[in-house]
Amino acid sequence: MASIVKEGELLQYKGRPLMRKENIIYYGSMSDPYIIMMQILDTKQEGDLKVATRVAVQLQQTSPNVSRKERIVKKSEKNSLWSAMDIASIWLTRALSNK
Questions:
Q1: Which pLDDT score is estimated for 1?
Q2: pLDDT of residue 12
Q3: Residue 4 forms part of a structural domain
Q4: Sites in the chain below the pLDDT cut of 70
Q5: Closest CA to 93 of 16, 25, 19, 17
Q6: Which residue of 12, 19, 67, 84 lies most exposed, with the fewest beta carbons within 10 A?
Q7: Side by side, which strands form the sheet with 24-27?
């Protein structure tokens, strides 16, 4: 089966970059004023796959002038990666439209 993402390209979801490092997924571009950080907190085994069962979602400011604590604009916890991606897309779209 052919790869959807070519070497050197970022995976995208709804036109925005999606990057993963271990159990943390970043959604959005660091050049924008906001990004989403999703942390997979729990998983369960479904056949050969690990499926996220608890995901923390945070809308964060990207400004380096803001303290770590003040960067978090909104946060929530969802019971699946699908639910987390859904709310992440909504939050990020709304935050970036208010530039």
A1: 42
A2: 87
A3: no
A4: 1-8, 99
A5: 16
A6: 67
A7: 11-13, 16-21, 24-27, 34-46, 49-61, 72-78
Q: Give the range of the structural domain holding residue 83, as residue numbers without chain letter.
A: 11-97
Note the pLDDT of residue 6: 63
Decide if 2 is inside a domain.
no
On whether residue 20 sits in a domain, the answer given is: yes
Residue 50 falls inside a structural domain: yes
Backbone angle region of 88, left / alpha / beta, with phi > 0 → left and psi within -120 to 50 → alpha: alpha
- Domain total of the chain: 1
Taking the model in full, what pTM does it have? 0.84
What per-residue confidence (pLDDT) applies to 98?
A: 78
